[in-house]
Amino acid sequence: YGAFILTVAILHLVNSAAIPVTMWKSYSAYAGVQDAMIQWWYGHNAVGFFLTAGFLGIMYYFVPKQAERPIYSYRLSVVHFWALIFTYMWAGPHHLHYTALPDWAQSLGMVFSLILLAPSWGGMINGIMTLSGAWHKLRDDPILKFLIVSLSFYGMSTFEGPMLSIKTVNGLAHYTDWIIGHVHSGALGWVAFISIGAMYYMIPKLYGRKEMYSIKLISIHFWIATLGVVLYIAALWISGVMQGLMWRAVNSDGTLTYTFVEAVKASYPYWMIRLLGGVLFFSGMLIMAYNVFKTVAAGKAYDAPIPEGMTPGSLPMPAYANPANPANPANPANPAGNVATQGD
Q: Measured over all CA atoms, what is the biggest interatomic distance in the chain, rounded to whole angstroms?
């Protein structure tokens, strides 16, 4: 959370640098290709540090909570975090392939984007492997399904991103629906699903309920939303590849085989499938809204039970806090009032 707050602040400050002209008008401090580079340094890192770092924080809290398992590897979480922080900053130029940006800058962005696959998958693996020894919980726990499937979409979109940064692949995919499908696999599959799972976990606790009004409705929401996201992004992937191939098709004399309008017309069926996916996803959110309303409006709150062994009297007293400890300042045998450290 600290990384996302600090970095997004820096991004806004640098990207918003401007020369004032009048009270209500200003010009960007950058021009030409430098302006484009700053825009995509901002744009890609807004995704990296808002939609990735912030929501990884949500994942690292709620997946262990719902699974009732410790995180798989704390060491991996630290390593992949710092690798993400360092690598993400350099990935922006992959949005400017085949432009006026110097070729070395484009290649640098591509290389760091490919490296980014490792720390991204480090987070996905760490989250999914937290269920080691508790996979059976996925059968009956729709909240856990939301959290784990969100990690699957995160892994898929963070694999697709580096692949799209390769210049030859980007030459086919850029400006097509494929890019939109890639963005929505992250926005709907990762960001929305992890947020929904976290909300289903928090809302009963916020209002003093044992659980959501209907677990069955959560399960229905999960399957409707999953189907909606899959239809949404798969339609855009297919449409995008088709558009890229139609745009590059040429006749033997070098003229274009298809006009732009023909490519648009060929995309209509896939856009209808995309619409269906969006309607399904929105329907799932309406189900969630009803479930949340009924949960909040349900009967009286109850006192949350304290897990066994977690009451104040049952917790072992640290040695440095024991009044009988000679090093404790409150002990009469310690007239100097020396403060002991936890190691004492």
A: 100
Return d(Cα 314, Cα 65) in angstroms, integer.
22
**pLDDT higher than threshold 90 for residue 344:** no
CATH of 2-300 among 3.60.15.10, 1.10.8.110, 3.10.129.10, 1.20.210.10: 1.20.210.10
Name the pTM for this structure. Answer: 0.83
SS3 250: strand
Q: Residue 110: its pLDDT value, please?
A: 96
Q: State pLDDT tens for residues 218-250.
A: 999 999 999 999 999 999 999 999 999 999 999
Cα(344)–Cα(337) distance, rounded to whole angstroms? 14
Q: Is the pLDDT of residue 264 over 90?
A: yes
Burial of 109 (0-12, 13-18, 19+ CB in 10 A): buried
Q: How far apart are CA 110 and CA 118, in angstroms?
A: 14
